[in-house]
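Morning F.,

Quick status update on the modeling queue. The single chain you submitted on Monday has been processed. Sequence for confirmation:
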Amino acid sequence: MKEVLITALGVGMATVIGAIIGFVFKKVSHKFSDIVMSFAAGIMLAAAVIGLILPSVELGGKWGLLYAIIGIFAGAICLNLMDKLIPHLHRLAGVDSENHNNANINKVLLFVLAIAIHNLPEGIAAGVGFGTGDSGQALLIASGIALQNIPEGMVIIAPMLAAGISPRKTMVCAIATGVVEVIGTLIGYLAVNIATVILPIALSFAGGTMLYVVSDEMLNETHAHGHERAATYSMIVGFCVMLILDVLLG
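Structure tokens below.
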């Protein structure tokens, strides 16, 4: 349990680290952000397949493939429904730095809320990874999610400051989004330990949520600013890094 708690705090702290970087470098270039996020997308893609979906198939026995497919679609549909309930992250990312009106502040806070809500299933994925009993693989999954949280923490700072929100409140909001991830990690870990029978579907569900985030959020964002080639190769490097680590630590 100690290892899970440390991992949960690490995953949550990654958002805070990103926020601190966002304070120091308020104008991070799109190219740099796209490359970092694409690298994280590659890591998450490998983590979803190698660390979650394939173990789901193996642990499910003769019905493993069916459980995995059901779980993947359940995870993707869950996030799709969440996107229906809250505005899409991309539509909220642009903020007019000249206007400090309440409508603009509400828009930015809604953007932060959207990130926080999306962090919950990512945290659950990190926690569920420990259900396989393979701590090394679970840590790799958590590392991929944490790496993705750094640029995410970076991008929430500038819009909030531009909207006239104080630096102190901005930091509190960033920390809150990280706390959501910590809670999700603990929920995922406790759920699969209380009812191990749900582990195959829980693993693939977590994998499905990660696949959805990579495709719907990360790849769209990294290919929106004219740096598609750099982003693509960065994602491939991230995937290969995860693959190498899995083989060496497996």
